[in-house]
Specification:
It contains eight helices and no strands. It is mostly helical. Helix 3 runs antiparallel to helix 4, helix 3 runs antiparallel to helix 7 and helix 4 runs antiparallel to helix 5.
């Protein structure tokens, strides 16, 4: 049980968020009203996406150094899970924007940056599927993935921070909302951030374990793509 402590913590945090996020009183915010509870679901989706893409980039660098197929698989799976949570963030954000701003899409710089970020990683998926040779596929995808994460930082943080935005945290202060939240929101938004991140990692590890069961030849002691094909 000790090695699964983080899964237990994830379950407790998410149970807390799903229950307390509905029951607890929150500050009255004009226009948003009860829709402000979406903060506990919409915003963490982006945290999960960013963490997954960061871990994926790290595994891509490891693959380029070691040529270990395990690193390529983990890098790929973290991208897939990151994209899934990014899409959830976009969907919940558009739903929230319909209530807060009157339309699901307002060409807000943070909306545009998030959309471009997702498109960048959709291109990663297309790149992988378009290359048949496994070694070349893994190597080119790893290089692309590192540059994709380098592009993520300006798209999500640097560029939107220099444009007027309907989102909180404008005027070159992208993290302003983190320390200006009401205490009632912080009691839920911070646990939600960690709970959803742990869930994203948990899902990725499950996908990885399924691949290990389906393709045991990938995980022989030689541990490289070339040897797995021989």
């Amino acid at each position: 049980m000790l090695k699964h402590w983080w899964k237990i913590l994830c379950s407790i945090l998410l149970l807390y968020i799903f229950s307390a996020g509905i029951i607890f009183d929150i500050p009255a915010i004009p226009k948003l009203n009860e829709s402000a509870r979406n903060l506990f679901y919409h915003v963490p989706m982006w945290y999960v996406m960013i963490i997954c893409f960061l871990i994926s980039a790290i595994y891509s660098i490891r693959y380029l150094k070691n040529n270990a197929i395990k690193d390529d698989i983990l890098s790929r799976e973290f991208v897939f899970v990151g994209i899934a949570f990014g899409c959830l963030g976009m969907i919940t954000g558009m739903e929230w924007a319909s209530i807060a701003w009157g339309a699901p899409w307002s060409n807000d710089p943070k909306q545009v940056g998030a959309a471009l970020c997702l498109l960048t990683y959709f291109a990663y998926v297309l790149l992988r599927s378009s290359i048949k040779d496994e070694d070349k596929q893994a190597r080119l995808s790893a290089v692309y993935n590192v540059f994709a994460f380098a592009l993520l930082v300006p798209l999500l943080f640097i560029i939107p921070a220099h444009f007027k935005s309907l989102h909180p945290g404008t005027d070159s202060k992208p993290f302003e909302a983190l320390y200006t939240q009401a205490a009632a929101f912080r009691k839920l938004s911070i646990p939600a951030m960690f709970g959803w991140i742990l869930l994203g990692v948990w899902i990725t590890t499950l996908r990885y374990r399924i691949i290990k069961l389906e393709h045991p030849e990938y995980f022989k002691p030689s541990n490289s793509i070339e040897s797995s094909k021989s």
